[in-house]
Structure formats: structure tokens, C-alpha cells
């Protein structure tokens, strides 16, 4: 297989942190690679170097056999054929979906100093069709959900037709059925000989879609785990990845919860809590509990905590701490 990208002894140091330490590996055409590691392993730093957002302290990047210095994202996209769908969205809220998709190509839609919005919207709808999204492209980007924003970023990257496409935690805000659709698109891109790098903290997703998994630990490259053999137990592969990530087999597992008994003492009680962000929230938290507050991004988790802390006003409902109502 033809090697399209080679990372050779890349290092990056920040004050007090060695983010990457002589990282080396090569990627081939027509494969989906997972890039995994615990928080602080160096994944984001490596991606930002590949996109020209950071410059390495030492080492080389070789794209299609040629050594390159990736100075900025435009160089990465136009000269190296590398693009990234980041978890943090870069859409401009006040601009329409169509304008955001073609933000770096708007000049081609100008005729006598005026944008041909009809053509722009037609092309935008075509771009969204590639990610199975059908919506009004004239809507401002600030009015759509986090999941829709991720798909629009994906559509924008696909429209640039990169040879190497990186997914930086892109599926974090997507529902499971949409994730399956994204994986189908990724497999189609693989058939077209594209090289994909998929970053996720969800190992199940990584194992489901990736051919090989690259592992980073504390800025060091720990090796590649093969995920292409169908006769290998997925649990064995998972344990191998976890071992490389953490240095121990049970590194990502919580201890078993045996013989748990709930305290009868309620520490925090919330009843019918409502405001412009929340609708009739009811919750009781008991002494000694560890409580998870889950949901897709933007579903009200931070608003609930800010309301409990008194940083946002409540319109109705009560909040009691140790039985005493908070004003």
C-alpha cells in the first residue's frame, strides 16, 4: 500500500509539558486509523501540528513522499490535502449555513459584486446531501443544534475533497443513529482510497470503524494495534489498546460496585425547577452518592448547575440543601 503521510520524530514542548516526544509512524492510502490516548496524551497537539496551527520543535512531516512545512490550515488543505473536522465548531453564528459551508470559496459566487445566493444555496444543499442532512441552508448557523453543526463541518470538509481527513472527537455530540451514518460515509471514503484518522474516547466506536489503532501515552507513540483480523476476539484487542494507553489492563475500568446501600439522608432536593432554559426539573441526591449529569452538549446540564449555584434565576420550583430552601 502507498504511504501518504509519514510522521518522523515529531516533538513538541510547552512550558512544563512535553506534549509530543519523537513520535513516528506512517499512514497508508485507503485505511481508517484510530488515534487514541488518555487526556493529555498528545492527540490534539498532533492534529494541530498536521493542520499548521502549531509548529513542531523538531522532526519531519512527509506527505506523498515530499517533506513539508505546514505553516497554516490553508497550506494543510490546499498543498497537503489534509483537513480536520474538529469537535469545537468554527461556524460563524450570524452567517447562513450555506455561507459557512463555502466561506473560503465565496468569491466564486460573486457576479458583478453581488453574491448569487440561488447558486450558493443549491451547492450547499448538495454538500449537505453527502452527509445525509436535509435542512434550510439559509438559516443562521447559530440557530441549529450542536449535532447539526458537526455534520455541517463534516460536509464542508468533504466538499474540499481532502486525501487525508481527520475526525477530532466529531461524533461526541451525535446520536447513535447519526454516528452509524457517519461511519457508512467513512467506509465509502475508504473505498475511494482516502486516508482517515478517527479520534474518539469511545473505544467501541474506534473498534467498530477503524482498521488500525495508533496509541499515544504521555506524548509517546506506543505502537499500532491491528483491528483487521476477523478471527480475533474484540475484547482482546480492546485490552491491548487499554494496556498501551494506560500501562495496565484495567486502566479504563471502574471498580465493581458491590453491596451498595443508599443513605436515607437527602443532601440536595430539586422540585419543579424551571426557568428559560429548564423545564420542571426534579432531582434528589443522597449523602455519599456520586451522581452523573449526562446529555448531549447544549441540553441544559451547565444551565442546571448554574441555576443551582444561583448564577441564573429560577422562575419557579424549589432547591433545598440539607432540607433548607435556597433563595
TrEMBL record:
The family database entries (Pfam families) matched by this protein are listed as: ABC_tran (PF00005)
Superkingdom field: Bacteria
Q: Which UniProt keywords apply?
A: ATP-binding, Nucleotide-binding, Repeat, Transport
* Residue span, ABC transporter domain: 5-243
Q: Name one GO molecular function term.
A: ATP hydrolysis activity
Q: Which InterPro entries match?
A: AAA+_ATPase, ABC_carbohydrate_import_ATPase, ABC_transporter-like_ATP-bd, P-loop_NTPase
Keyword Lipid metabolism listed? The answer is no
PANTHER family cross-referenced by the UniProt entry = CARBOHYDRATE TRANSPORT ATP-BINDING PROTEIN MG119-RELATED, GALACTOFURANOSE TRANSPORTER ATP-BINDING PROTEIN YTFR
**Designated name of the protein:** D-xylose ABC transporter ATP-binding protein
Amino acid at each position: 500500500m502507498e504511504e501518504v503521510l509519514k510522521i518522523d520524530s515529531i516533538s513538541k514542548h510547552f512550558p512544563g509539558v512535553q506534549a509530543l516526544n519523537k513520535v513516528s509512524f506512517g499512514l497508508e492510502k485507503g485505511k481508517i486509523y484510530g488515534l487514541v490516548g488518555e487526556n493529555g496524551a498528545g492527540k490534539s497537539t498532533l492534529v494541530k501540528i498536521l493542520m499548521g496551527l502549531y509548529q513542531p520543535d523538531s522532526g519531519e512531516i512527509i506527505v506523498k513522499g515530499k517533506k513539508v512545512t505546514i505553516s497554516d490550515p490553508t497550506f494543510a488543505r490546499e498543498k497537503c490535502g489534509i483537513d480536520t473536522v474538529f469537535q469545537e465548531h468554527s461556524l460563524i453564528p450570524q452567517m447562513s449555513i450555506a455561507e459557512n459551508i463555502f466561506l473560503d470559496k465565496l468569491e466564486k459566487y460573486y457576479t458583478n459584486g453581488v453574491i448569487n445566493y440561488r447558486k450558493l444555496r443549491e451547492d450547499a444543499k448538495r454538500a449537505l446531501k453527502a452527509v445525509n442532512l436535509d435542512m434550510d441552508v439559509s438559516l443562521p448557523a447559530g440557530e441549529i443544534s450542536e449535532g447539526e453543526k458537526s455534520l455541517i463541518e463534516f460536509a464542508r470538509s468533504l466538499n474540499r475533497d481532502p486525501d487525508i481527513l481527520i475526525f477530532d472527537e466529531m461524533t461526541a455530540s451525535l446520536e447513535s443513529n447519526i454516528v452509524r451514518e457517519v461511519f457508512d460515509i467513512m467506509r465509502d471514503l475508504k473505498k475511494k482510497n482516502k486516508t482517515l484518522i478517527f479520534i474518539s474516547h469511545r473505544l467501541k466506536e474506534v473498534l467498530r470503524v477503524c482498521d488500525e489503532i495508533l496509541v499515544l501515552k504521555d506524548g509517546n507513540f506506543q505502537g499500532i494495534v491491528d483491528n483487521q483480523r476477523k478471527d480475533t476476539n474484540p475484547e482482546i484487542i480492546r485490552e491491548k489498546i487499554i494496556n498501551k494507553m494506560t500501562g495496565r489492563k484495567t486502566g479504563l475500568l471502574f471498580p465493581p460496585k458491590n453491596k451498595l446501600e443508599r443513605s436515607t439522608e437527602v443532601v440536595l432536593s430539586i422540585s419543579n425547577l424551571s426557568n428559560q432554559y429548564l423545564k420542571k426539573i426534579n432531582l434528589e441526591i443522597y449523602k455519599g452518592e456520586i451522581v452523573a449529569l449526562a446529555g448531549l452538549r447544549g441540553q441544559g446540564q451547565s444551565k442546571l448547575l448554574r441555576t443551582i449555584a444561583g448564577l441564573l434565576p429560577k422562575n419557579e420550583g424549589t432547591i433545598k440543601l440539607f432540607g433548607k430552601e435556597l433563595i
